[in-house]
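Table 4 source record.
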Amino acid sequence: MATNSLFRPLQGPSSTPARSVKIEFDGRALQVQEGVSVAAALLSAGVSRFRTSVVSETPRAPYCMMGVCFECLVEIDGQASRQSCLVQVRDGMKIQTQRGPRALTDGTEAGNE
């Protein structure tokens, strides 16, 4: 069942329009507000599926928006399992839906050696 997003950015008292940045989500170019979290930016752009669950692969989306629920995990610039509600959006980010579990490694990723 398709539903409309209940997420709407608040309009501030300032008459100055918010600056925007360009990002890419699953290969789709998006223009989003600068200075907000990746989760807020994606929700305001109409994105409703951020990841799939590990067991049943059902679509998931942010719930708490404060880093507790881990429902907002996405891949940002090639790094999986990023909590999009805790990462500030910046120009040029490449974000992808996280499907299933993060790939396991043997601990020898770049920077861990």
